[in-house]
Amino acid sequence: MKCLLTKAFPEGKSGVLEFPTMNVSETETCTLDSTTAKIAPTAVVIFGATGDLTQRKIIPAFYHLQKNCQIPDGCAIIGYARRPKTDEEFRCELKTSLDQFSHTQPVDDAVWRQLAPHIYYHQADIESPDGYRTLAERLQRLPESAAFGGNCLFYLATAPNYFGTIAENLGRAGLAPREDSRDVRRLIVEKPFGEDLTSARRLNQSLHQFFPEKAIFRIDHYLGKETVQNLLYFRFGNSIYEPLWNRRYIDHIQITVAEKIGVGARGGYYDAAGATRDMLQNHLFQLLTLIAMEPPASLDAESIRDEKVKVLRSIPISKPEELLKRSVRAQYGDGLLDGQHISAYRKEQRVAPDSTTETYVALRLEVDNWRWAGVPFYLRTGKGLYRQFTEINVVYHRPPAVLFAAICGPKLRRNCLRIRIQPGEGIHLNFNAKVPGKSMIQLVDMNFRYREDFSDYLPEAYERLMVDALIGESTLFTRRDEVEQAWQWVDRLHDAWAGENRKDLPLYPFGSMGPDEADHLLNRDGRYWAPVLDD
Ligand SMILES: NC(=O)c1ccc[n+]([C@@H]2O[C@H](COP(=O)([O-])OP(=O)(O)OC[C@H]3O[C@@H](n4cnc5c(N)ncnc54)[C@H](OP(=O)(O)O)[C@@H]3O)[C@@H](O)[C@H]2O)c1
């Protein structure tokens, strides 16, 4: 948007958000970022320390926080897993994986040398209460313990069936929060949070035995993405969009989370979960709540989460036959990934040969409230698709063509606000313009790209989430009622599908944009999926 708006408006006044800010360097910015808040020295205990997530995301996040001077002296990281290894071996393995997975390259060895001495390894079994007793003793003996005292952040980066066991064992070992203590004890819980409403409730109950809700940080890493956070700033920090953000002006909204890869080594987990549990219940519903929510009373965590949960409550649960009409599930068949042949989902490792698990789901749903009544929200997510991208398209009503019918026929193209979450993060607004020298109308784009307007460095979601959990800021984590409300809806969809008792799902070729049925879902409403554009 930068170029076009600079022509339309005078230069922004410093510090006053009266005119669009063109460039952060030209104006004063409002600092709401919690990364500036102070982190207290804390012992971060990672359960599942030898696992994939620790190597891919958690340790790279700590490395970048160290690089950006966001970790105070007196913090320690303690890895908890069964495989025998010394502290030094653990550090070496983490360095090797950091070299592979860090999103900034090359890794700065000087930064790693500052961080590594504060990383330790605790070999123990999650199911053994003794492991927690020895952990508590070990924490007290660490050189950093004089600084962190009793402050602990426990990161549950293990298989979900261990989450409850870990919380209970921590509680029994005296490592949970206590009302008579000022020590801060928090839990970060990875996804998936349950597999249906019953299991999510059971898990909540088991966590709550020892950890109050305010000490529980349920990760949905989508909320840590800068572009997702920006949805709130974009909607409520500008005066030009919000008046048009409702059923009077918006025809429909599309939310797409497309994955290029297949299930890979995750076949065992995925075949029991499917795209709906793995992606829709959490990531897509979170994007939906941020797009559809009312302005919160303030920016505090509870106000924002109150509004998000109201959106989920406003999604009517239709009858099974309606849910079947408004949903499409499908599975990838044989196809191509970057020119290589990929086998169908049913031939993947640890996937049942007659599996009816969906690798693709598309839905039409409604948010039945004053703002959105009658506006369809189309959601889709799938694996083995042609592109990897996450995008929200806000499609406006068609303008009346009376003046231009002779030029462009009875239908003018709709305005569409394209919010690209990843990759190529940015916001693009298209509008109809006259083609120079001709009596023709063409859609053109106003573009905002993060990398052009801000610095090159876009923090990874896990960096932001780690800082927020360390300072106790829970806005970007999902609350108990949000999780349960989302499961309630997803359970009804699964019930409807179970009632269908299908032996086969529609197939789409690996490397395509999904099944034809997903196109029909929109086409029969006179709409179509927004074209997939370059990043
Ligand atoms: N990987 C990702 O990119 C990703 C993304 C989003 C969410 N998640 C979630 O993050 C969690 C972890 O995933 P992951 O991929 O890292 O799993 P993983 O690679 O299988 O790692 C599991 C970890 O748990 C430890 N572990 C297993 N049983 C144990 C026991 N009885 N006692 C102590 N430690 C035990 C393993 O260590 P030992 O074998 O050494 O004991 C290993 O460190 C899962 O809930 C997953 O859904 C992962």
Question: What is the fold's blueprint, element by element?
Answer:
Blueprint lengths: L1 H7 L34 E5 L4 H16 L8 E6 L5 H15 L7 H7 L3 E5 L5 H13 L3 H4 L3 E5 L6 H10 L12 E5 L7 H12 L7 E4 L6 H11 L13 E9 L8 H26 L8 H13 L6 H6 L1 E11 L2 E3 L17 E7 L9 E7 L6 E8 L8 H4 L7 E7 L3 E9 L6 E9 H4 L7 H11 L5 E2 L1 H21 L6 E4 L5 H8 L12
Parallel strand pairs: 1-2, 1-4, 2-3, 4-5, 5-6, 7-11, 8-17
Antiparallel strand pairs: 6-16, 7-12, 8-9, 8-10, 10-11, 12-13, 13-14, 14-15
Unreliable residue runs: 1-34
CATH superfamily of the largest domain: Dihydrodipicolinate Reductase, domain 2
> What is Rg?
25 Å
Average pLDDT confidence is 91
Q: How would you characterize this protein structure?
A:
The chain has 535 residues and is α/β, with parallel strands linked by helices. It folds into three domains: 1-30, no CATH class; 39-190, 3-Layer(aba) Sandwich (Rossmann fold), CATH 3.40.50.720; 223-393 and 473-523, Dihydrodipicolinate Reductase, domain 2 (2-Layer Sandwich). Helix content is 35%, strand content 20%. The chain contains 17 helices and 17 strands. The chain has helices spanning 2-8, 52-67, 87-101, 109-115, 129-141, 145-148, 163-172, 197-208, 226-236, 267-292, 301-313, 320-325, 405-408, 450-453, 461-471, 480-500, 516-523, and strands spanning 43-47, 76-81, 119-123, 152-156, 185-189, 216-219, 250-258, 327-337, 340-342, 360-366, 376-382, 389-396, 416-422, 426-434, 441-449, 477-478, 507-510. Strands 7, 8, 9, 10, 11, 12, 13, 14, 15 and 17 form a ten-stranded mixed beta sheet that branches. Strands 3-2-1-4-5-6-16 form a seven-stranded mixed beta sheet, with helices on both faces. A hairpin with a 2-residue loop joins β8 and β9 (340-342). The chain binds NADP nicotinamide-adenine-dinucleotide phosphate (NAP). NADP nicotinamide-adenine-dinucleotide phosphate binds at residues 48-53, 56, 81-83, 125-127, 157-160, 190-192.
